[in-house]
Design brief:
258 residues, 71% helix
Amino acid sequence: MLRNFPPPDVACVHRFRDYFIAGLTFFCVAISLAMDAEGSMAQQNFMGFIAWTFLAGLLLGESKEVRMQVLIAVAFATLGEHFASIYMGGYTYRFENVPAYVPPGHGMVYLTAVALARSGLFQKHARRIAAFVVLACGLWSAWGVSGYPEQGDQVGAILYCVFLIYLFKGRSPMVYLAAFFITTWLELIGTAAGTWRWASLEPIFSLSQGNPPSGVAAWYCLVDAVAIGGAPPTLRILGKAGEWLGMRKGARQGARND
């Protein structure tokens, strides 16, 4: 089950950039969600501008593959936000909208997962981190269906099982482990501050869900999987389109010269 984990004796490289991306995102999540808890729509829009600026700056030092992954993650997550929140009502933001900072925020969250996954810390301690995440999230999920909390969390238990499948069967387990930390951080802060709230019953099967669900990282793992899988074919398509346009341009220039 650990075939896609880094080997125990892997050579680790600690790059300042990886930890800077993670530290900046964790800090920005805490500040922005706390501010939005009592902010105005205009403030949300300004925070969106700041978030896009930060994301663009962070992407300057990344490869084209990672940049494409981030763009796909932003597009897919934004569609998911409108479907799950606006259309289905699985969770609701204060103004019943998708705040302007959320799409670029998803980009920063995804980039943080990638940066932590490749960091020396996660590469060196992959198995210890995995054991901690499995245990911590498992206890959280068990508590949600134990009958003790006022709001049950059947959805969280299901999502926890889905998360385990991603972790042990997926091709990028380190990204999923890193996603657990940043997404749990933002979900706990966002729900505690009242920036959004999860419905007590999910809208399709009326299963109970926590605020937030314990296995909520599984939703973000889906975004990560789509981004990682979608980037290579998208880059190939864009490359072929560029070649075709270049050939068309060359043909037109040749025709004018004749």
